[in-house]
Amino acid sequence: MKMNRVFLKLSGEALAGPKKTGFDEETVREVARQVKLSVDAGIQVGIVIGGGNFWRGRTSDAIDRTKADQIGMLATVMNCIYVSEIFRNEGMMTQILTPFECGSMTKLFSKDRAGKYFEKGIVVFFAGGTGHPYFSTDTGIALRAIEMDADCILLAKAIDAYMTVILR
Ligand code: UDP
Q: What's the pLDDT score for residue 108?
């Protein structure tokens, strides 16, 4: 089965390597090199990244859940900016889309905009999850992958496993 448009979910912890928190550059470079093999083969790649290497909404009982989830969504934006820059450094074109305005740091998501980037061979980062509290980036990737007519979703988690969801 030929896969033309593939979505990849990286958990935040998958970026942290042995450190478990923040970024581990060599770990992220290795991900970038693997993704580049697909991009060079003409596959359109969409990336969703979690935020668990910094924060999850359920991390604190002391603050309002909506505010805690907003911190989590911003963590996913930070992660996408970091990983996007490493991808560029490894020779790929990238753009970051968010469901809410982040000034000049990202561009606002629209299906048409994302589709144009994919057609140009640009790796598209879907940052900020769904934009709504009480959700996770796993929900975010499912929504975006369906909306963008992706062929499959690959999930890389910090557990010793991966999952492939074939959409069509
Ligand atoms: N988040 C949210 N809405 C979304 C996606 C994420 O509120 O649509 C927040 C939520 O607080 C979540 C955090 O962002 O805990 C980080 O996302 P996730 O838990 O999916 O990251 P992962 O565990 O995959 O690193």
A: 98
**What is the assigned CATH class of domain 1-21+36-42+71-148+164-168?**
alpha beta
Per-residue pLDDT at 159: 60
Condensed to tens digits (0 to 9), the pLDDT of residues 55-67 reads 888 778 899 999 9
* Residue 41 Cα to ligand 1 middle (Å): 31
Q: What is the pLDDT of residue 160?
A: 59
- CA of 135 from ligand 1 middle (Å) equals 6
Candidates 97, 137, 87; CA nearest to 118 is: 97
Q: What are the distances in angstroms from CA 118 to CA 17, 43, 58, 150?
A: 29, 9, 34, 11
Query: Ligand 1 within 6 A of 56 CB?
Result: yes
Instruction: State the pTM of this model.
Output: 0.94
